[in-house]
Amino acid sequence: MLRSSLRLLDRHDVAEALAVCDRDVAANLFVSARLSGPGFGNRAGGGELWGYHDSRGLASLCWSGANLVPVQADEEAVDAFADRARRQGRNCSSIVGPADAVLALWRRLERYWGPAREVRAEQPLMALEGPPVVAPDPRGRRSRLDELDLVVPACVAMFTEEVGYSPVAQDGGALYHAQVTSLVAGGRSLVRIDDVPGVPGRREVVFKAELGSVTQRAVQVQGVWVNPRHRGRGLAAPGMAAVARVVQAEVAPLVTLYVNGYNVRAVRTYERVGFRRVGTFATVLF
User: Fold this and answer.
1) Which residues have C-beta within 8 Å of that of residue 152, sequence separation ≥ 6?
2) What is the value of pTM for the model shown?
3) Which of 113, 137, 219, 263 is deepest in the core (most CB within 10 A)?
4) In angstroms, rounded to a whole number, what is the distance separating the alpha carbons of residues 264 and 205?
């Protein structure tokens, strides 16, 4: 019988933990990005990392912060992570990651943490390894700080539509504004901004996306949104192609994202760009 243990990892464990993440670069990108960032191992990192060891060494991981994110977690690791999460209490707003591990965690935690606001059990994980197969939108580009008055409302609209509540409800939007500002300042916000026809001097975000988790090997795109006034015009695929072009030219070769399985139109759009399904995610929202 294999001996196993669970412990809190620190900066001395980064290389070994990254090796675990590298077993599936696309699926484990969220945790890889946090391990690669300067904040891991201190309070500024925004979370902690649990390591599950067996007799062969570090076998599985689980990030615990605003999100609970399992990595390469088999049933034994899920048992250990669920036990620690139960004893610690729920501090996260979601459990997200590879579907098998996420749903297994939720089965163990639901009686203690439930009910969930929503369980999204089928979210295709998609990746683009080569160049996009549709022409990028020539108007797609990184946003600028002097455009925050346009970008922030678009981000709020997308978040509210996707998650089901406004991100500015509790504090008037100060924290969310700071988060969007950080993305824009870091070159991780991409947009198409057009003039509003018939309204001189007024502009609006037509398409937007952000680069969420970022490493030298891969990027996870998040927050993809087309302004409702412009839907049905075929802007999403060229917009995503523009995002992929920027990422692959300047950041990393692999572009990933995950999407709700019921959003068939979005899945088909990503497929037209050249994305292919490489796995399945699930998300439990609180």
Assistant:
1) 173, 176, 177, 180
2) 0.92
3) 219
4) 24
